[in-house]
Amino acid sequence: MFENKVIYQIYPKSFKDTTNNGYGDIQGIIKQLDYIKDLGVDYIWLSPCVKSPQKDNGYDISDYYSIDSLFGSNEDYEQLILEAKKRDMKIMLDLVLNHTSDEHTWFAKATNGDPKYYDYYIWADEPNELESAFGGSAWTYHEKVGKYYLHLFDKGQPDLNWANPEVRQEIFDMVNFWIAKGVEGFRLDVIHLIGKEPDKLIKGHGPKFSEYLKELNENTFKDNLLTVGECWGTSLKQQYKMCHDKGLTQAFHFNHFLLNAERGRGKWHTKELDLVDLCECFNTWQNEYTGIEALVMNNHDSPRLISRWLDDQKYRKESAKLLITLFGLMHGNLYIYQGEEIGMTNAHWHDIKKYNDVETFNNYEILKSEGYSEEETMAKIAFTSRDNARTPMQWDDTAHAGFSSTEPWLDVNDNYVHINVLKDLSDDNGVYKYYQKVLKFRKEHYDKLKQATSYSSEGQVLKMQNDFFTLLANFSAQNQPLEEINGEIIFNNYSKVPTHLLPYQVIVFS
Ligand code: GLC
Question: Where do the domains of the chain lie, and which CATH numbers do they carry?
Fold first, then answer.
């Protein structure tokens, strides 16, 4: 029921501003629904747009029930659900259930001595060695309470105590509120952390995790809605457990995103992509995993793959199409991140003043304290910062890329003059039109994508093969040898079939 779906992720702050305050809004999304639908989309996932002080861009929620005035109102959201439905698309809500904002009334009550709400969060007399994903200790001392509270992310994001049944009930009520409004899917933020046991230093996939997930499912979506968990670096076994037996439909594992990171040193210390590792990852998840994979090339937490793995300058369009073909021909549900459909690239800023992301700022300080020079630190940030993918959508070549008529909350990428929706759509060889074709093919031939498919590499060429087709992809700027092609060409990101594989060429034949 929930397989072979295409989900388009919107980062509302950066999509389309209709009120001219520099932030994208819900009316802006409504305005672009046809653009999204025409690509071949079934669901639209919106990153959080309920009330938040925006310390972590909405992933720090201060009121789960009200749309933040920055983005519009609950009525706007209801209109969005309706307008999407008219176009046969469903809305997927981002659920941040592991933590709230420190500005949520629950936290205010907890820190003002209300014992009921004190128990909604996690406290300790002394911090242990647990670390925050954004750098530094996961514990912050609260003067008024006289204790430390746990925050696996920023100190403005205190972790909820899922061991407390009252907390779980609050969550179920809130999820049902949105289901009643017509939301038909959920993305569950860092969901593997809800079963944490901080005393035992257990963060992800704790002993009670499956139980909580099952209880959430039984009390809310009841297997009737598409749900996707966010779980960085999960193993096959963990994934299977999470997605069977009344858990989630699927979960992002992101193992391929981690291939640029130096093992054991975290994402700020990077290395070149090795195709051998990439093929191993694809083989595991496409052939060994028996569930529905959540296929993903980009999101708001990761620098865009086109800039990390391929060439986002001279061969930008070819590179964008290479990735689209590769991921588009895998089985599972395909998640598209805004801008991917026109081949948007990373911002690569080398000036810390251009950034906005809390994780980037924390790690800027950490890298500097570890002895990296300003230049070295900024090189790491320019490659890895999440803001690379969060720059405003590039609609046209007018000021601020047609995103807003005023200075946006985060700068537009300078390349908007030649990379924008208007220009791409007017180009018969544009990325959007190519993506449309791949998605159409995917819908029509899905059963064939589900055949056992092998992934292998030879030098810089990746080969994906099953009984139905062969895909060859050149991950380099050099020509690569190509055997004679006898079958019918299904996809080709160049107009000719050459005697060699051209730079960043992808070719698929039967
Ligand atoms: C998830 C979100 C990310 C956020 C973090 C904390 O990873 O995708 O943007 O910063 O959770 O909520």
Answer: 105-150 (3.90.400.10), 451-509 (2.60.40.1180)
